[in-house]
Amino acid sequence: MTDTVPARAPGWLPRLAAWLAGLTGWRRAAAALVLGAMSALAMPPVYAVPVLIPAFTGLLWQLDGAASRRGAFALGWLFGLGHFAAGLYWVGLSFYAGAPHLLPVMPLAVLGLAGGLAIFPALAAPAAWHAPARSGARLAVFALAWAALAWVRGHVLTGFPWNLLGTAWGFADFSVQSVAWWGVWGLSLVTVLAAAAPAALAWRDEPPLRRWGVPGAALALLVLALGGGAVRLATAPLAGEATVPGVKLRLVQGAIPQNRKWDPALRRDHLDRYLSMSRQDGFAGRTHVIWPESAVPYFLGRARGLREAMTSAAPPDGALLSGIARVEDGGARPRLFNSVIALGPNGTQGARYDKHHLVPFGEYMPLDDLLPLEQLAHGGIGYTPGPGPRVMDVPGAPAVSPLICYEAIFPAEIVPSGERPGWLLNVSNDAWFGTSAGPYQHLANARLRAVEQGLPLVRAANAGVSVVIDAHGRTLARLDLNARGILDAPLPAPRETPTLYARAGDWTFAAMLAVLAVVAGALAWSRHTRACKSAGAGASNH
Questions:
Q1: Which of 173, 428, 531, 539 has the fewest CB atoms inside 10 Å of its own CB, making it the most exposed?
Q2: Within its chain, how far is the Cα of 276 from the centroid?
Q3: Which residues touch 228 (CB under 8 Å, ≥6 apart)?
Q4: Span 364-406, pLDDT tens digits
């Protein structure tokens, strides 16, 4: 009689993976939705980065149980729906301030946006599903597809690269430094790879070396990104040490509620508020006063005496830089621009920048010739886009690249090709979104542009957050959300040399994708070879 050794029961991790893979029906859908919503907690301002591990690991385990490409697509879409609905809920708050009569459709608008954006994770999931199940190849293909499709999301149609996974590292200065090499795209790729890699620990049919080596390699890459960032920051000049001589800024944050901003009875009061705040104590020692996007509720070109009134906020030895809505006549109908202008103390208008990347449905109506939606645009007239990114000359200061509102979220559109300004200016009006996560996410996105380009960023927002950030992403001065006040600060100096990302752009990210594609192919071939050998050995035993 021969004693039999009972099979060793699988550990809790394989059991959890098997449970997630075995879910069916509404339970499977609910799990994917919850995992996606959980992943949004890693975004600003919560920064719960560790939740990315169970979220993406869980999704990969769920894909192991998908019976078809369509099932994998559905899992990816539900995960994306949860991720974007939880991360972009604040978009609906703009209805309260701008279109209260449309509040009944607000949930549909938020879910419609989330559902449309969820198409990109939905495409990544079946791409990974086609790779061998429970293998390093599936992990590599998933990370590659997720990151590549996030890049597509940031460029297709008008593009919307909001809440990229790389922004989850904005809780500290050292953790975002690697975007100077490979941009937020590269950091996002490293993040999703590291977050999904622990799924390999439950793959019992993989050799131990590979089962532990896959997450180990992903962790090593993440440590390289974070550790390299820490070294980069440690070797940089001290925060506030390098400034532009003779340039002294004053940012004005009026904190005017959006639902009162365009009230005709209050317009003059709002203008007077910005004028009086600009001229508060210390005004004579400032060289440049900066007002946010559409700071005053008038249209330049229509309001008499507006330019003259604003001139009083221009320091004697500098200029007022202001966001302003302006009107140009001369065509079949007037053209409305969202602009930044420079006004000198003598009333002369210097350089001007017109916003070129407009917000769909907020500043213009897509297909407005076909769809009767003009009434949703400002005053029934959509904004006209400017010619594109440009460097603007500023009296008494280095040339600047202006970014109006969410133009700061597009990494490839920050500076014109072949030009390098001395600083970035982001004017915005986040009062639409109250005290939600929206303004903090907007700030986190804008901050990454400073690190990517190696340029200081000055951000003036009507209701906050207004900041002065140096070329390494360190905040030197700040006015918090809904605080009314002024922010006096010097202008930080740019890095002496452009960053790798400023020189190479998205090609560094493309190279990372190419390397990962080779790794995925090698892992898939290795898995196939082992399967063939195992099948051959089994056949020879019969």
A1: 539
A2: 34
A3: 177, 178, 181
A4: 877 665 555 444 445 456 899 999 999 999 999 999 999 999 9
Cα 186 to its chain centre, rounded Å, is 13
**CA angle (106, 107, 111) in 5-degree steps:** 120
The 3-state secondary structure of 201-233 reads HHCCCCCHHHHHHHHHHHHHHHHHHHHHHHHHH
Q: How far apart are CA 434 and CA 257, in angstroms?
A: 9
- DSSP character at residue 417: T
- Residue by residue, DSSP assigns 77-131 as HHHHHHHHHHHSGGGGGHHHHH-GGGGGGHHHHHHHHHHHHTHHHHHHHHHHHTS
Q: What is the pLDDT of residues 495-538, one digit of tens each?
A: 999 999 999 999 999 999 999 999 999 988 877 677 676 656 55
Catalytic residues: 293, 355, 405
With beta carbons less than 8 A apart as the criterion, state whether 147 and 185 touch: yes
Report how far residue 397's alpha carbon sits from residue 471's, in angstroms, rounded to the nearest whole number: 16
Q: Residue range 111-138: average pLDDT?
A: 95
Give the phi and the psi of residue 137 in degrees, each rounded to 5. Answer: -65, -40
pTM over 0.85: yes
Residue 68 confidence (pLDDT) = 96
Sign of the C-alpha dihedral computed for residues 85, 86, 88 and 93 taken in this order: positive
**H-helix or E-strand spanning residue 392:** strand 392-394
Q: Are 219 and 461 in contact (CB under 8 A)?
A: no
Q: Which residues pair with 468 in a beta bridge?
A: 458, 477
User: Hey, what are 482's tokens?
Assistant: 């809904």
- Output the six-digit token pair for 27: 């339970």
Beta strands at 243-253 and 288-291: parallel, antiparallel or unpaired? parallel
CB 145 within 8 A of CB 130: no
Orientation angle between helical segments 136-153 and 179-196, nearest 10 degrees: 130
Contact 371/365 with Cβ under 8 angstroms? Answer: yes
pLDDT in tens, 69-110: 999 999 999 999 999 999 999 998 887 776 777 777 888 889
**What sections of 333-433 are H helices per DSSP?**
none
